[in-house]
Amino acid sequence: MLRVVVSCLLAGSLTGEGSPLRRSGEARPGRLSAGGRSPESSAVSVLVPERDYLVYVGSESADMVALVRFGPAGIKVERQRYVGASRAEIAGPHGVALSPDGRHYYVSIAHGVPNGYLQKYSTATDSAEGNVMLGSFPASLQVSPDGYLAYVVNFNLHGDMVPSSVSVVATAEMAEVARIETCTMPHGSRLTRDGSRHYSACMMDELLVEIDTRTLQVSRHFRLTKGREGGMSGPPVRATGATAHDMGGHGMDAPRPGDTSCQPTWALPAADGSRIWVACNKSSEVVEVDGRTWTLRRRIAAGPGVYNLGVTHDGTRLIATNKRGQSVSIFEVATGRELARIPTTRAVVHGVAISDDDRYAFISMEGRGAEPGGMDVIDLTTRTRVATVDLGQQAGGIDFWKSEPASR
Fold first, then answer.
1. Is 241 exposed, middle or buried, given 0-12, 13-18 or 19+ CB atoms closer than 10 A?
2. I need a surface site. Which of 46, 63, 169, 293 has the fewest CB within 10 A?
3. Is 226 helix (H, G, I), strand (E, B) or coil?
């Protein structure tokens, strides 16, 4: 593996095509770069990848899903697929998920009449292979480890302040088999590696909710508000008296003085379910819940507006996107210590996907205003940003597909 060591004072970018180094901050679309660096490092090391890595990213305001290839030759958009229904209206693809066998990808479409829906596509041809209408504003989704079911949260962004749900879809038939009521504005949903439990975070109820996938019922819930933490059995009691959402900033609003609310945006269980991490977007903390005793383990200080989470397959590092902080944090799971905070090339950072060899984290970025969305690539070995590519506006949903021998 080729190693290029660059002095911190000259940290710039490597094109992968033999071009001279540019200064940091000048990385261009389709280029490899040595960007943000760990504060512990005295030099930036760029390890040129030996394989190609393929990632799907959805762009909510462009109605596009892009397949991005990153490897020794650099980074590029391999192809794109329009997933809307009409060019005159925004459909809003929000979540993207691959099937375990890699033959299909699924896209949750947030906008629809009367509700949103889930679409199924072939990874080989990009051909549509089915769709099913779900609830209001389907958002984050994941396919079960056996590939038979897809779990999609109905975020209900623009609806009344009432409990929403998680839709369970049979992927072969593309039919909704269950709609499980959870709490208000569920988001950030993920399954344990064995598929036995599903977790989602409810932004407006300050709750983590667990679904037993064998019974398709809510088994437990956990309150996340600082100073009021506590786990309970069964589904949450429906709240009354609230009349409107307070999500105008969509995860970008900083807390007011004295505000102890969490406003959770992502729930991520460890592979064995022994712990669940929750991103508290409002308080800029990661809450760690013990999955066995259903008690609080610890609160970890995170970056501004921590939003989405990913964990390496070996379970040693937690990756967090900081939506208000234009950065990505890498945490050591054992200690909770932040190992590095790496600036991203664009503001309003969104999702994270991790390569199958735990080498890279792929970060989707929404961008601001009319600027394009994008994806940064973070080398988890050197803790540096090594590549960036432009995508459609409001790039958000992201999932890793596969790695393969490089197409040099």
1. exposed
2. 293
3. coil
Alpha-carbon distance of 6 to 403, in angstroms, equals 27
Can you name the residues that pair with 182 across neighbouring β-strands? Answer: none
Alpha helices in 99-227 (DSSP H): none
Shortest CA distance to 336 belongs to which of 361, 317, 360?
A: 317
d(CA 166, CA 212): 12
Residues with Cβ within 8 Å of 285's Cβ and at least 6 positions away in sequence, in order, are 226, 262, 299, 300, 301, 302, 306
Predicted structure pTM score: 0.87
pLDDT tens-digit readout, 40-90: 433 445 688 999 999 999 999 999 999 999 999 999 999 999 999 888 889
Amino acid at 233: S
CA distance 345 to 334: 29
Q: How far is 213 from 78, CA to CA, in rounded Å?
A: 36
Nearest to 339 by CA among 288, 294, 302: 302
Q: What is the dihedral of CA 356, 357, 360, 361, to 10 degrees?
A: 40
Strand order in the sheet with 207-212: 186-191, 197-202, 207-212, 217-223, 230-233
Instruction: Say how far residue 408 (Cα) sits from the centre of its chain.
Output: 29
Closest by Cα among 322, 396, 405 to 353: 396
For the chain, how are helix, strand and coil distributed in percent, rounded to 5?
A: 0, 50, 50
User: Is the omega angle on the peptide bond into residue 257 within 30 degrees of 0, that is, cis?
Assistant: no
Listed in sequence order, the residues at least 6 apart from 255 whose beta carbon sits closer than 8 Å to its beta carbon are 261, 282, 283
Residues 6+ apart with CB under 8 A from 301: 284, 285, 338
SS3 194: coil
Considering the domain 3-242+258-405 in this protein, what is its CATH number?
Answer: 2.130.10.10
pLDDT score recorded for residue 14: 34
Dist. CA 352–CA 336, nearest whole Å: 19
Residue 195's CB is within 10 A of a number of other CB atoms, namely 19
Contacts of 238 (CB under 8 A, 6+ apart): 162, 163
User: What is the CB neighbour count within 10 angstroms for residue 251?
Assistant: 20
pLDDT band at 272 (very low <50, low <70, confident <90, very high): very high
- Cα–chain-centroid distance for residue 335? 23
Which distant-in-sequence residues (6+ apart) come within 8 Å of 19 by Cβ? none
